[in-house]
Amino acid sequence: MTVPDVESDEHAITPLELFFDLTFVFGMTQVTILLADDPTWGGVFRGMLVLAALWWAWSAYAWLTSATDVDEGGVRLVVLASMAGMFGVALAVPGAFGDDAVLFGVAYLLVRLLHLVLSATVIGGDPDRRGALLRFAPTAILGPSLLVLAGFLDGRARIAVWVIALVIDYFGPVVIGVGRGWQVAAEHFAERHGLIILIALGESIIAIGLGAGLELNTGVLVAAALGIVVVSALWWLYFDVAAIIARGRLVQARGVELHRLALHAYSYLHFPMVAGIVLFALGLKTTVDNVGEALGTVPAVGLCCGAAVYLLGHIAFLYRVTGYLFRRRTVAAVVLLALVPVAVSIPALAALALVSAVCSLVVAYEAIRYRAARIQVRHPELA
Length: 383
What we know:
80% helix, mainly alpha, single chain, 15 helices
């Protein structure tokens, strides 16, 4: 991810950025479909690899658009071209490890190359910014290029190359290090990631609708209501107080600490939250499809562990930002993990009810126990 050095002025999220995010929404929907079509451990692993690739491409553009307003002049056309490439990537998701493997790799490489072109266009002649581009270009090209190579391989060799490609891509910034040539507009960056969490939660609601289909009955309606309860609880845990605190800490940070905090707390630790939501959407869709039957192992893991992975990513995010471990949320995540053996042996609707109860209880407890602190964060003028 290539970004410039001096801090940019804050600017509002543009309609073009939101328009670009729609392609990522479609990609997440495609990953959910991929997981639903292959509810095996191997299918889950492959689905998470694809989601990781999509996330890192989106994250690269999030850094760039935070640093620079790209909704003007010719760069707007490059962003629109990137959207077309991202849409091609999303279309190829169901066949990313099958017949469309090469198409996926080529489209993904195109998206990443366009990001570098866009970066080179907006940085001008600033030597620090150009130095950042030159340092990060190798990993930004090598990782996606390996995905093209993976398209020509089969079986374990393909999976191995995928893993290597993502490791190179994700850990390039860590190996090279943050410093001169990095830039982020803190409020814009935090808000952009909040919106992508909101979009991912919306994907869970779509999963409810897809699962319900045309056959509505009492069980389906109850499952849909419980699903909304869980999604609402996950939304509450992020947006009620946590997002406000995190945004404040990011805005207060300066220099290298700002860049590291943005990279670690947002680029890295928001991914498990998104992955958890997608896994939960898999379990939720299967639950709505089979309310009176026991879930299979993988959908049960998706339902319970999806919510748990979201919480664990959320806890790690808050710990990186505040240095404080939210113990009650950690306990809730552990309880959700422990529910997996139960979820495979009871009706799907009952398993969803248990997940809903755990998530609702932690929200209710914190809202009551920390009411004064919550008001102070959300309404400091009343404190």
